[in-house]
Amino acid sequence: MPETLTAALPFMLKYQGQTVVIKYGGNAMTDEGIKQAVLSDILLLKTMGINVVLVHGGGPAINEMLDKYGKTTKFIGGLRYTDKETAELALVALSGMVNKSLVRDIQRLGGEAIGISGIDGHMIEVTQLSQELGYVGKITKINTEIIERISKTAAIPVIATAGVDENGEIYNVNADTAASRIAGELKAERFILLSDVRGLYANYPEESSFLSEITLSGIEQLIASGKIAGGMIPKLEAIQYAMQSGLNEAVLLDGRMKNSLILELFTTEGFGTLIKKDNLDLAKFDKLKH
Ligand SMILES: Nc1ncnc2c1ncn2[C@@H]1O[C@H](COP(=O)(O)OP(=O)(O)O)[C@@H](O)[C@H]1O
Ligand SMILES: CC(=O)N[C@@H](CCC(=O)OP(=O)(O)O)C(=O)O
């Protein structure tokens, strides 16, 4: 045990005082025991002096809420078609339920946390992404001031990704997209996406096609080959986009595995898929749709 701690020292020094943005996906939160373990790892990182910013999703919680109100739902290219009522119910599920339960759990573990949504402090400013998707927001600006203010205290900022437009209208925003933009704006040292999959596969779900590392160009080729489906599309597109605005590395990590965060950050072995920048012309991602 003492040796393990000593071996972790260079990594602790590397990340101390740095910003690490963690996106916790709703599908990775379904096991209560694992969720508590993930939150206690996150609290450990904060206690070590790392600026942890927790951005969460909650797709399954939104589904449950919509079910309760007898509303049907559909996804187009990995994004939920959102009418006005769905945008309101998504806000209740994400900001009211998922966000507050994460804050409460971190506090129960002995830490401090402050839960906010993209509406608070105009953190996530949006316009409508497309007529076809209804109230789904395209991010126009991220105001990081409120995150930075919380980060300076002992509290972990816990962010629900609703967005607001210039008229005060509320929009549903994909959590991967928002988290990537936040990581880019904060110039995060690391951006980690905790999901319900080990990482990225060239030919999902064939285990032998697991990729421990890939570059932006590699991702572009995979997307073009049609091997990426569902929620993985906005996830990868969001990472590509954020790398334009300062993000250097992103890691897709299994959020269903205990201590995956600690192993990823504090050991030499990588556990998920590391996504690195390469010489790909980033300017062309300006035209990405979200
Ligand atoms: N090539 C691929 N590699 C890994 N996962 C993939 C791939 N193509 C599609 N997926 C799907 O993407 C899912 C992760 O995205 P998503 O469900 O949106 O996660 P989250 O809710 O954590 O944001 C995986 O569970 C998997 O079903
Ligand atoms: C526009 C859009 O699709 N918004 C997402 C927001 C939640 C989310 O992204 O949650 P996960 O990270 O758990 O998938 C949705 O409605 O499901």
Describe the structure in your own words.
The chain has 290 residues and is α/β, with parallel strands linked by helices. The protein has a single domain (2-287), classed as Carbamate kinase (3-Layer(aba) Sandwich). The protein has helices at 2-15, 32-47, 59-68, 84-108, 145-151, 175-185, 216-224, 232-242, 260-266, and strands at 19-24, 51-56, 75-76, 79-80, 112-117, 124-128, 137-142, 155-160, 163-164, 170-171, 190-195, 200-201, 210-211, 213-215, 249-254, 273-276. The strands form five sheets. It has an eight-stranded mixed beta sheet, sandwiched between helices. The chain has a two-stranded antiparallel sheet with strand order 3-4. Strands 6-7 form a two-stranded antiparallel ribbon. The longest helix has 25 residues, at 84-108. 46% of the residues are buried. Residues 285-290 have low confidence and may be disordered. Bound molecules: adenosine-5'-diphosphate and N-acetyl-L-glutamyl 5-phosphate (X2W). InterPro entries: AceGlu_kinase-like_sf, AcgluKinase_fam, ArgB, Asp/Glu/Uridylate_kinase, NAGK-C. One of its GO terms (molecular function) is acetylglutamate kinase activity. Pfam families: AA_kinase.
- Decide which structural class fits the backbone: alpha/beta
Straight-line distance between termini: 45 Å
Per CATH, the architecture is 3-Layer(aba) Sandwich
SSE series = HEHEHEEHEEEHEEEHEEEEHHEHE
CATH class label: Alpha Beta
Strand fraction band? 15-25%
Q: Helix segment count?
A: 9
Major pleated sheet: 8 strands, mixed
Lateral arrangement of strands in the main beta sheet: 5-8-2-1-11-15-16-14
| Unique ligands | adenosine-5'-diphosphate, N-acetyl-L-glutamyl 5-phosphate
- Give the full name of the CATH homologous superfamily: Acetylglutamate kinase-like
Instruction: Count all strands and give the number.
Output: 16
Q: What coarse outline follows from CA principal-axis ratios?
A: globular
Number of domains: 1
Unreliable runs, pLDDT <50, ≥5 residues?
Answer: 285-290
Oligomeric state of the chains in view:
single chain
CATH fold annotation: Carbamate kinase
Q: Mean pLDDT, nearest integer?
A: 92
Report helical residue fraction: 25-40%
Radius of gyration: 18 Å
